[in-house]
Amino acid sequence: MNKHPHKIHNSSAKTWKKVSHHPNGKLKSEVPYVNDKKHGVETGWDENAQKRWEKTWRDDKQHGVENWWYEYDKKWHEMMFKNGEKHGMENWWYDNGIKESERYYLRGREYGRIEWDQEAIVTKVNIPALELTPSPQTKHKQSKKQKPKQRPQQQIQTPNLKNHIGG
Questions:
Q1: Cα 156 to the chain's mean position, in Å?
Q2: In this structure, is residue 124 part of a structural domain?
Q3: Number of domains composing the chain
């Protein structure tokens, strides 16, 4: 069994995979490299050869989706990255399959979240209104006779809780 990185050469770039194994000999992880930087989908497995995580890399920074699973393909965690920072929605699930939380990120900073208990009842909502400033290219002069446009109210979607609140 080869416990050292397995290298595959490509004519246009130095491409190889770092491969590791559990003590029982089963595959533990594979990490793709291009020009000595992580690039592609990293995959990890537990001692029973079940996939536990996948991470997407670009030029040694996480970029794209990261997924983690409980046993038997139940999703545990999902997160989006952009240039090494959390960016987009992050989801967590309880082991019973009920969503635990949604968190929202912009360039590495959390700006809101919704949380549920194990019966899918919302326990926390924290989504502050985002102050959006139009760019100079999109700013329009309003004539004195026009009324300013009202910003539409934000809608928050929550799961159907009808069966959980006696409805």
A1: 20
A2: yes
A3: 2
pTM (2 d.p.): 0.68
The span from the CA of 80 to the CA of 156, in Å, is 20
Please, what is the end-to-end C-alpha distance for the chain in angstroms? 59
Interval 35-67: pLDDT, tens: 999 999 999 999 999 999 999 999 999 999 999
**Domain around 49:** 1-59
Contact between residue 59 and residue 73 where contact means Cβ atoms under 8 Å apart:
no
Give the CB-side neighbour count of residue 69, counting CA atoms within 13 A. Answer: 15
Report the candidate in 72, 71, 118, 111 with the shortest Cα–Cα distance to residue 92: 118
Task: Say whether both 91 and 120 belong to one domain.
Answer: yes
Give 33: exposed, middle or buried? Use CB within 10 Å, 0-12, 13-18, 19+: buried
Cα angle for residues 65, 69, 73 (degrees, 5° grid): 115
Convert the pLDDT of each residue in 78-104 to its tens digit: 999 999 999 999 999 999 999 999 999
Cβ atoms within 10 A of the Cβ of 165, count? 8
